[in-house]
Amino acid sequence: MRLLILAAAWLMVAIGVIGVFLPVLPTTPFMILAAALFARSSPRFEQWLIEHPRYGQPLIDWRREGAISQRAKIASVSLMAMSYGIVVFFGPPQLWLKLLIGAILLACAAFVLTRPAPGR
Fold first, then answer.
1. Which of 38, 56, 68, 104 could be joined to 46 by an S-S link, Cβ 3.0–4.6 Å?
2. Residues near 26 by Cβ (< 8 Å), separated by ≥ 6?
3. Is residue 49 a contact partner of residue 38, using CB atoms and an 8 Å limit?
4. Closest-CA residue to 42 (of 16, 14, 5, 11)
């Protein structure tokens, strides 16, 4: 079971890294999930992720306070809006599906915006 959790953690890291280059794929949620999976399978890799210069601080902020930085909130909501614009103009023709996607993105944006800022 430990190896399966470890493999899932590395899969989340890979998806998170891909998200750095694809604006429609968020990075941080995958890294948060990877850290949680590493905590259950490999303390060494969990420590590596927590100490990572790019991903470490957002993970620490999330663990301590459930906090998201202002910069990350702006980036996240902006990319959600851009993604929805792509869906509206180039997505499926069904109006109900566009509205459903919009409602899901709106709920996600509301969640992100209601998280506290890190106290540091």
1. 38
2. 19, 76, 79
3. yes
4. 5
Q: Judge residue 60's burial from the number of C-beta atoms within 10 Å of its C-beta, 0-12 exposed, 13-18 middle, 19 or more buried.
A: middle
Q: Would you say how long the chain is, in residues? A: 120
| Cβ contact 50:59 at 8 Å | yes
Cα separations in angstroms, 100 against 53, 107, 112: 37, 11, 19
Q: What does the alpha-carbon distance between residue 72 and residue 12 come to, in Å, rounded to a whole number? A: 19
